[in-house]
Design brief:
The complex is a heterodimer of chains A (738) and B (338). Chain A is α+β, with helices and mostly antiparallel strands. Chain A is built from 27 helices and 18 strands. In chain A, strands 1, 2, 3, 7, 8, 9 and 10 form a seven-stranded mixed sheet that branches. Chain A has a four-stranded antiparallel sheet with strand order 13-15-16-14, sandwiched between helices. The longest helix of chain A has 31 residues, at 551-581. Helix content of chain B is 35%, strand content 18%. Chain B has helices spanning 34-47, 67-70, 119-129, 192-200, 221-239, 242-261, 276-295, 301-322, and strands at residues 51-52, 79-88, 104-113, 139-143, 146-148, 153-162, 165-176, 179-180, 186-191. In chain B, strands 1, 2, 3, 4, 5, 6, 7, 8 and 9 form a nine-stranded mixed sheet that branches. Classes of the chains: A alpha+beta (738), B alpha+beta (338). At the A-B interface, helix 8 and strand 17 of A face strand 4, strand 6, strand 7 and helix 8 of B.
Chain lengths: 738, 338
């Protein structure tokens, strides 16, 4: 049972790709071996910055022979048929067997496909695996055509057993497999021969390479925590950084350095971001003060001066970065304390979008909307507006220019420095949230007002200029903005009629696009929208009151409602995707979307959740069937008779007990459903509807709707309408599938 | 952004490099000045067979823009060149006050096609040549893929770290001007000021000795460049006339396209002369004008993309033209006038 060892030695593999590459190598090769008929006892894969290694132990030395039997012509068949068969099988006549078949004496050929030695199988499998390797990004180099993650320098590929090792013979683009490799680039240069995996691992260790990334990570974490502990400090946990750093070194040497005292007052996030992003340093915290006081860097070698030069160099690079950061921080604080006016002014010169104007103009619109929204989300309008006005000021700060990932967070620090109340400062940080589907949703009222205003303004702005997402193209992340609106509303249980705010913000966006709209008319229109809650009535009020309205203003009558409907549809589409992920079927959502007030997303979702629960029950499912049956019979009758059966179902014409019972049940349900709906208590409304199921079922079982007696028939059809009308109050059940 | 983003960002300084003893004759002494580092790089890469070229005589943002890199990385002809390229990054001006930010700085650029198998070793040799002792320092190759949206170019490689400081960009070009690089060029870019500050152990770029500190007239980097940094910072940020710049941008764009629209055959000489380089000069101009406009803060985020797209379109047309020339590997069909 030979063992197999493969090492692909290259220039430095990006740290983030190493683990998956090792796993892919193991899977591709072991799958290939099994497919070729070999078996093995165990396999393991490893990666370092310069090598991918695979070891397969207890490999069968050959694949088994495979015997195939083929039936030929009958012995009395023409000579030509036999010749053809011999050609096809590669046998001679005396090698054939003659056996009795149903139709007579027949030739049979036994073709033995001999097993292949593992070496042959590997000599084909490995080059194919290398050529088709699934790197996330690969490249060519020199004049060759082979692709690898970085130039591939050598291939160690051996089979070894008790008699020794042999190279699996193959080459890939002129690179021949061999039995040598090399150790650490600087600490142990030079190639050496390898005879087995144990020999390989031992020699690598001597050549200052720790093969396993887990071993390297453990070593780093062990030394780092010990060093920090000895100094009475602790390492800030960062698994991602640990894995990355373990992929940057073959021989980790952990070094701890001091952060200059002049930098210790920087916000900890600034220290941490700068050290992690630029230098791949671990942050070392003082548990007593919570401050970050030291750093740990991981070098790739030992030196005669025990890392003194390396540590000094790293310390200097860090000091330079932090003195930049400190310089920015101090400059920024000066401007912040002067009320940030330098920054807000600077935003007047920053274009947000060439059609939608400057950042400053956009902030004006967001501030106006945040103020509008404040009462509905329980925030102080003054605070919401103030927060919106400074929330993006940090975009002009030097710190955010240098560390864009700190936007918002720096805004909070600067707002605090400027003396804003803490909820206003927090809103500066939180107003970008939620960014992704799993990002935390702000709940502080001021943050919610600004976050909602920010996202709604983005959406209405791009809707006003008809720059909507198409297919996979969404350059302004509008889908994300819509999902942000949805999650802000749902997580906070906000009862908001979005229409009103969308209409108002569309008018503000239109005003930014067309000077001709007129300031006064726009202002009055916005005031009327706030008053009426709808665009149409507001627009008519302004049109009736003001003369000399510009054509551009009058055109709003079509443009705003169209854009508003379209944007709400877009938000609904995102809501459907969101709810589908939460397990609510799209037809259930459609049934609720058809109901009035669908711009109130919290109401919509309450309804959909209740309906989904109702439909999952036996009563709910049957009620839908009853509803559909009623609706079918009714629409057929209406079509046939050319009249609508909508009014006048009268209990006094009820003939059977079941019919009477249904009248009674409808009345009872109605008296329970109406107040429940009034209170937006959908579960109660649906529970009341559930009581209709039995009477409806009984009615259909026993009563002939299309009775001979025309009065009876008309009364029953009108009764069917009452069923459908009752059901229609909770949702449009015609949209429910199945 | 890779090599063309080079030369900015860090302040760094260490005590002077330890003398590595008698490891290599040429590194037995640490360099004493900025120019000595450049001269050592020149002689090192000359000794490795590179043609030592001179800077391109136009304003460029990075050494990559030199036609000896951009155009010569295209086509099949072998190539090996090294040169210093003064580079301009208007937005990085700091009036000469920042210890490590300059709007004008030097890059050292090496381009070898096809990339030799020992390019990493050759590169490490160059670090030793300028006095970095591999036994004491921690050299690392950290993933950094390079992309130049203005050149329609990308490659894979690393930023090279010395004790945590980025000292070079190392890139295997995969595509330039929209053309696959076959063969692949290996490109090395050293940010010279950054590297020199580190090796010479000074705190501020302006304090760095430019020539030998014992020369009869010793000059610092500041003696040479402090005033120009001030002048250009003021010009770049506040006074460059944006309307003129915009007009020049459009002129360069038009001129580039006009040059390339001429038929290959020159009516005067009857020769096949495709004017790839003159056209490319206009592309370089447009790119620098865009950088100036950017520094003046008159280009919005969305406009930025449009401008970058326009420069890229020029770079692509120049690349298309260059591969139709002899230096770009074009072989005239037999029977054609050669």
């Amino acid at each position: 049972m030979p063992d197999f060892l493969l090492e692909l030695f290259s220039e430095e593999i990006p740290a983030r790709m190493q683990a998956k590459a090792a796993a892919d190598l193991k899977k591709l090769v072991t799958d290939g071996l099994v497919e070729a008929g070999l078996t093995y006892a165990s396999a393991g894969a490893f990666s370092t910055p310069r090598r991918l290694t695979l070891t397969v132990e207890g490999l069968t030395s050959d694949s088994p022979d495979v015997t195939e039997e083929r039936k030929g012509p009958r012995t009395d068949a023409p000579e030509k048929a036999l010749d053809g068969f011999l050609r096809a099988t590669g046998l001679t006549k005396d090698q054939l067997e003659i056996r009795d078949d149903k139709k007579g004496q027949t030739y049979f050929a036994r073709i033995v496909k001999p097993g292949r030695p593992a070496e042959d199988i590997l000599a084909t499998l490995i080059p194919a695996t290398i050529r088709a390797f699934p790197w996330p990004k690969s490249m060519r180099w020199g004049a060759g055509s082979l692709r690898w993650v970085r130039p591939l320098h050598s291939i160690l590929c051996i089979l070894s057993d008790e008699n020794g090792a042999s190279v699996v013979p193959f080459d890939v683009d002129g690179l021949a497999a061999g039995d040598t490799t090399e150790g650490h680039r600087f600490m142990a240069p030079g190639r050496f021969t390898v005879t087995s995996f144990d020999d390989y691992a031992a020699k690598l260790k001597r050549a200052r390479v720790l093969l396993s990334s887990e071993d390297r990570a453990d070593h780093i974490w062990h030394d780092a925590t010990n060093m920090a502990f000895a100094a009475g400090l602790e390492v800030v946990d960062d698994k991602g950084l640990l894995a990355e750093v373990a992929g940057l070194v073959e021989y980790p040497v952990v070094l701890m350095g001091e952060i200059g005292t002049e930098f210790l007052d920087l916000p900890p996030e600034v220290l941490q971001t700068s050290m992690k992003e630029h230098q791949k340093f671990f942050s070392i915290k003082n548990p007593k003060t919570g401050r970050i006081e030291r750093f740990i860097t991981v070098a790739n070698r030992e030196t005669a001066d025990h890392g003194a030069t390396i540590l000094a160099g790293n310390g200097k690079v860090l000091a330079a970065r932090l003195s930049d950061a400190k310089f920015f921080w101090e400059n920024d604080l000066r401007i912040a304390k002067a009320d940030m006016s330098d920054w807000t002014r600077a935003l007047e010169n920053v274009t947000f979008h060439n059609r939608l104007g400057t950042q400053a103009a956009r902030i004006d619109r967001i501030a106006a909307l945040a103020r509008d929204l404040a009462p509905a989300v329980g925030a102080d309008p003054e605070k919401a507006e103030a927060a919106a006005r400074i929330a993006k000021a940090d975009l002009s700060s030097e710190m955010v220019y240098e560390f864009p990932e700190l936007q918002g967070l720096m805004g909070r620090y600067y707002a605090e420095a400027a003396g804003y109340p803490s909820d206003v400062a927090v809103a500066c940080q939180e107003h970008y949230s939620p960014l992704g589907p799993s990002d935390d949703v702000p709940t502080a009222p001021v943050s919610v007002a600004v976050a909602l205003a920010d996202k709604l303004d983005t959406l209405t702005g791009f809707w006003a200029i008809a720059e909507k997402p198409t297919g996979s193209k969404d350059p302004y992340a509008l889908r994300r903005a819509a999902l942000g609106v949805i999650r802000l509303v749902l997580v906070n249980g906000l009862r908001l009629n979005l229409d009103r705010y969308i209409d108002a913000q569309l008018v503000r966006s239109e005003a930014a696009l067309h000077d001709a709209l007129g300031g006064r008319a726009t202002e009055e229109l916005l005031a009327e929208i706030a008053e009426h809650g709808v665009f149409g009535a507001a627009f008519h009020a302004v049109r009736d009151r003001l003369d000399d309205l510009h054509d551009a203003f009058l055109e709003l009558a079509d443009r705003v409602p169209d854009a508003s409907d379209d944007l709400l549809r877009f938000i609904h589409d995102r809501l459907k995707v969101h709810l589908r992920e939460e397990g609510i079927r799209h037809d259930v959502i459609d049934a609720c979307l058809a109901m009035p007030g669908s711009d109130d997303l919290a109401l919509l979702v309450n309804r959909a959740t209740a309906l989904a629960g109702f439909l999952a029950s036996d009563d709910g499912e049957n009620l839908v069937q009853g509803y559909k049956r009623a609706a079918n019979i009714l629409s057929q009758a209406e079509e046939k008779d050319g009249v609508e059966y909508r009014f006048g179902a009268d209990a006094k014409f009820a003939e059977t007990d079941e019919e009477k019972a249904l009248f009674a049940a409808l009345a009872t349900a109605e008296s329970a459903v109406a107040p429940a709906l009034e209170a937006d208590d959908f579960p109660a409304a649906m529970a009341a509807m559930a009581d209709l199921r039995a009477p409806i079922d009984a009615f259909f079982e026993t009563v002939q709707v299309n009775a001979e007696n025309e009065i009876l028939r008309r009364n029953r059809l009108n009764l069917l309408h009452e069923i459908t009308a009752s059901c229609a109050k909770i949702a449009d059940l015609s949209r429910i599938e199945g | 952004m890779g090599p063309i983003d080079h030369g900015q960002g860090d302040n760094y300084h260490t005590p002077a490099f330890q003398h590595p003893g008698n490891q290599m004759a040429e590194t037995s002494t640490a360099p004493r000045s900025f120019q000595e580092i450049i001269l050592r790089l020149q002689s090192y890469w000359a000794s490795k067979g590179c043609a030592i070229m001179q800077p391109y005589d136009m304003e460029v943002g990075a050494g990559t823009f030199h036609p000896a890199t951009t155009l010569r990385s295209l086509g099949t002809q072998p190539w090996a060149a090294a040169y210093v390229q003064p580079s301009r990054r208007p937005t990085d001006g700091r009036y000469g006050e920042n210890p490590n930010r300059l709007q004008h700085y030097y890059q050292y650029q090496v381009l070898i096609k096809p990339s030799p198998p020992d390019l990493q070793a050759l590169y490490l040799g160059s670090l030793e040549a300028i006095g970095i002792d591999m036994a004491l320092h921690d050299i690392r190759f950290v993933e950094d893929d390079w992309e130049s949206p203005t050149l329609g170019a990308w490659g894979l490689g690393w930023e090279v770290w010395c004790d945590g400081m980025e000292v070079s960009q190392f890139t295997y070009f995969q595509q330039v001007g929209g053309h696959d690089c076959k063969p692949v060029s290996g490109e090395l870019t050293y940010g010279l000021e950054r590297l020199a500050i580190y090796i010479l152990g000074v705190d501020h770029v302006m304090d760095m000795p430019f020539n030998d500190p014992d020369a009869p007239i010793p000059l610092t980097y500041g003696d040479v460049f402090r005033q120009t940094e001030e002048e250009y910072s003021r010009f770049n940020f506040d006074t460059a006339e944006t309307e003129i710049l915009l007009r020049h941008f459009e002129d360069a764009e038009r001129e580039c396209e006009a040059i390339l629209s001429h038929p290959a055959e020159d009516p005067k000489t009857g020769k096949r002369i495709i004017m790839a380089h003159p056209a490319y000069d206009q592309c370089i101009k447009a790119s620098h004008l865009f950088n100036l406009l950017d520094a003046r803060g008159v280009i919005s985020v969305t406009e930025r993309q449009a401008y970058i797209g326009r420069v890229r379109a020029l770079a692509k047309q120049c690349a298309d033209a260059f591969v139709q020339t002899e230096a770009g590997g074009f072989i005239a069909p037999t029977g054609d006038a050669a």
